[in-house]
Amino acid sequence: MPEKDPRVELTPAAAGLLRRLHATHGPLMFHQSGGCCDGSAPMCFPAGEFRTGGSDILLAELVVEGVPEPVTFWMSRSQYEVWAHTRLIVDVVPGRGSGFSLEAPEGVRFLIRSRVVNT
Known about the structure:
Elements: E1 8-10, H1 12-25, E2 28-32, E3 43-46, E4 56-62, E5 71-76, H2 77-83, E6 86-94, E7 108-116
Parallel strand pairs: 1-6, 2-5
Antiparallel strand pairs: 2-3, 4-5, 6-7
C-alpha cells in the first residue's frame, strides 16, 4: 500500500526516464549527498553501485510502473536534516547533470523540487 504522504515522489517525466534507464542498466537507485560536486541534484546509479553507509538514510522505495523492483532513494543524514520538513519531488529538466549519474548522456538531468509539509 502506498504511503499516504510519501517523502519522495516522481513526476511522470522522471518515471519515464527511469523506465528507459532501467531498460539499459537494470535495477536502479538514487543518492543525494548535498556535497560540493553534485549540489542538491539526486544522482542515479545502477542499484548497489553507490555504497551507502551509516551516514545515509533510505527515504523511499519508489514504485515505477514498468520497472519490476523499487528504485531506492537514499540521502545523506546531514542533507536530510536540512530537507526533513519537505516532500521531495524528483523531476527531469533539459541540461547536463553530473557525469556520474546515469542520465548524463541523455541530455537531461534529474532535479529535486520540494514542497513544505506539516511536521
